[in-house]
Structures are given as structure tokens and as C-alpha cells.
Write a sequence for this structure.
């Protein structure tokens, strides 16, 4: 099943913080986060693994609650370059090697 | 390295016509994927391949076929295009399922397909 992302959209001023959530109804092995700018391809941000290990980006952090099958992406001190649509991709039992992506969260950062 | 490339970038088809989209990667990746992206729907997996000569169905495989004759190439075919297949198609590749998790997927620039 497709993971549920919230919020669907958020507007920030430069320097503000944002949290994007991703929730699944099935047990997860990993959660991946990607960012897509308008008219471009999705670009990898980070992977969160079962067991708590985190791999990825310097200025963006995330958490993974295995018991609740939830992940949150934290963007602090947002910059104009953070604007785009953020997707979580989840990997669960029976779909190893594949990701099921959420519908995305559109983030707009204004000056 | 070019990474992941897709051909063509744009295409307009009439209902019933056929076409093939080509994806190529130069990273020696085992896994390759085809997604479609529609407004408000996110990325939905059409078909994928875990190695040369293998293919498998994803979430939305109906109306599409794929082939992976060479490790670096993954072809997506539409035998009889329908307006519902109007979408942006992305190809991706990755090292695959390693050490208990799926590795990073690298995406191509996309193909915008319109079916009239």
C-alpha cells in the first residue's frame, strides 16, 4: 500500500523549520526520501534503515519509528533551494528491492 | 559518466499507436525500474528488473511491456497507446538489494508522453 504523507503542501519563509511525515500500514525495512524540483527528476536525500541507522544528507535530518512504521523529515533553517516536492519511498516485506512512493509533499520557501 | 539517460524526452502519440522508451545507465547497476508520474499521484512502479534477462511487474503494469536484454538498457513498450497512458515516465537504476535494504535509486530526466 502507498504510504501516506502529510502535510500535502507547506509554505515557509526562509529560515523557518518544517517537518514532513510519512506513514505506512505495513512493517518496513527502510524508508527513503527524495526531493524533486519542478520539471526535474527526483534526487536522493537519505535512507533510514530498520535499526536506526541513517545515511544521507548533511543539512536535513530524519527519524524512523519502526514500531509505528513512520518516518519524519526535518528541514531546519530552510533555504530557497529547499523548495520542491518531497517523496518518501518505503520498502517492506515482500517488496525487497522496490520502493512504494507516497504522493509527495510540496514545499515552497519564500524570501 | 552520463548516469541514467532516457530517449526520447518528449513524444506525442495517437490512440492505438505503439512506441518504445529506452533507458540506459552506465553505472553497472543490477536493478532498473520504470515509473510513471501523474499529478498528485506520486511515482508509481510499472515494471522492474533485478538483472539482465529478468523482469517483474510493479504496481501498475497493465498496458506496458518491458525487456532487459543488456544489463545497461531497460526498454518500456506501449503496444496500443491509450489516453490514460499520458504521463511523465521516469527510469531509475540502483545497485539493488544489498545488506538487507534497497540501495539508492538514481533517476533519469524523464519522458513526457501525450496520447491523443
Amino acid at each position: 500500500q502507498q504510504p501516506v504523507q502529510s502535510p500535502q503542501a507547506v509554505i515557509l519563509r526562509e529560515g523557518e523549520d518544517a517537518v514532513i511525515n510519512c506513514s505506512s500500514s505495513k512493517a518496513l525495512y527502510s524508508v527513503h526520501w527524495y526531493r524533486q524540483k519542478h520539471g526535474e527528476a527526483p534526487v536522493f536525500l537519505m535512507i533510514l534503515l530498520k535499526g536506526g541507522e541513517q545515511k544521507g544528507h548533511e543539512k536535513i535530518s530524519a527519524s524512523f519509528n519502526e514500531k509505528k512504521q513512520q518516518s519524519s523529515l526535518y528541514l531546519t533553517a530552510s533555504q530557497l533551494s529547499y523548495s520542491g516536492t518531497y517523496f518518501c519511498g518505503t520498502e517492506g516485506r515482500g517488496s525487497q528491492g522496490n520502493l512504494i512512493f507516497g504522493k509527495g509533499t510540496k514545499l515552497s520557501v519564500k524570501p | 559518466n552520463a548516469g541514467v539517460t532516457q530517449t526520447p524526452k518528449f513524444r506525442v502519440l495517437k490512440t492505438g499507436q505503439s512506441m518504445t522508451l529506452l533507458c540506459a545507465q552506465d553505472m553497472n547497476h543490477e536493478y532498473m525500474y520504470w515509473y510513471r508520474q501523474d499529478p498528485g499521484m506520486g511515482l508509481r512502479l510499472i515494471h522492474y528488473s533485478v538483472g539482465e534477462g529478468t523482469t517483474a511487474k510493479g504496481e501498475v503494469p497493465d498496458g506496458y511491456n518491458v525487456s532487459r536484454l543488456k544489463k545497461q538498457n531497460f526498454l518500456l513498450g506501449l503496444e496500443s497507446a491509450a489516453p490514460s497512458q499520458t504521463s511523465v515516465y521516469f527510469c531509475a537504476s540502483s545497485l539493488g538489494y544489498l545488506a538487507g535494504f534497497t540501495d539508492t535509486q538514481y533517476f533519469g530526466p524523464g519522458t513526457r508522453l501525450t496520447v491523443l
Remarks:
- The domain at 4-109 of chain B is CATH 2.60.40.10 (Immunoglobulin-like).
